[in-house]
Amino acid sequence: MHEDNTAFVRFLKQCRRNPACRFDSISSFLVTPIQRIPRYILFLQDYAKCAPEDPVLKGELALALLEMQKLASVLNESKRASENIQAMLARTYQTRGGRRAILTSIAHSHSLTHSLGVDGCSI
Hints:
The protein is an all-alpha fold.
């Protein structure tokens, strides 16, 4: 496994030196798709202002804009939830003794949601 990590680190360094790659870190590639959603929203808003006066087209643009806004909202809520979980896990790790406490906390949360009859909840 360590050799795999070393090879991957070497690969990333080669990519950084290659001007065709144009990235600072691997995380920049992970963030880019999420950043596209607000750009799509702006594009749809601008296009709707300039689009021909076709009621069908205007309706489709309005629907596409609404769906992109819903998606952005879901992504933002997911990001907030993820950040809250990370903060909770960090506090648990610091105050209750590390990894074992985190695993116990997760197991307790899972059994609690199950006992309350909350279906479809995955932790």
